[in-house]
Amino acid sequence: MLWVYGEFLIDPKIDQAVLFMMDTMKPSQSLATILTIALQAGLLAHQSGAGTHRTSLIIQRTAKALGAARVEVIISSTNIGATIEWGSERETGFRKAPHMGANFALLTTLNQWLCAVEQGEANPELAQQALDEMAQKPVLYPRWLIIILVGLSCGSFAALFGGDSAAIMITTLGATLGMMVRFYCVLHHFKPSVFATAASFVALLCTGLLSHWTQTPEAALAASVLFLIPGVPLINGAADLLNANYLNGMVRFAMSGVIVLGIAIGVSLALRILGI
Amino acid sequence: MHTWLLELWAAPAALGFALLFNVPPRALWLCAGLAILGHAARKWVVLLQGDIVFATLAAAILIGLIAEWWSTRRNEPAIIYAISAAIPMVPGTYMYQSVQALLGIASLPATETGEALLVTAGVSGVKAVMIVLALAFGIAAPLLLWPKRSSA
Question: Which of A172, A260, B37, B136 is in Cβ range 3.0-4.6 Å of A238 for a Cys bridge?
Answer without folding.
Answer: B136
